[in-house]
Amino acid sequence: MTTPNKTPPGTDPEQLEKTGTVREIGSQAVWSLSSCKPGFGVDQLRDDNLETYWQSDGSQPHLVNIQFRRKTTVKTLYIYADYKSDESYTPSKISAKVGNNFHNLQEIRQLELVEPKTLTLLKIQN
Fold it and tell me: Is 96:77 a contact under the CB 8 Å cutoff?
């Protein structure tokens, strides 16, 4: 189990990218969802707007699948969750799995969230 690493005040992924500390690689991937309500899909999940979001429309587990075309090293995921806005839709557990295809995924990290309202870091690789 991994505990969330809160970003220091005033630090955000866009600022870290501008300074060269991190690099956004999500645009190199194909994103898919286990389900979504119309108007609450991948585009809203990835649009950098905290007022828009992904909303699932099916039974659990709710999955976000990120597939890269070639082997890619991912060190950190930035996840924003706001319990006050989302309430029962806010994730309570996030699991990171890796593999060569959907059928051989292995969990490498798990993160428990308790009423979050923050940008959370999930370290994938040390």
Answer: yes
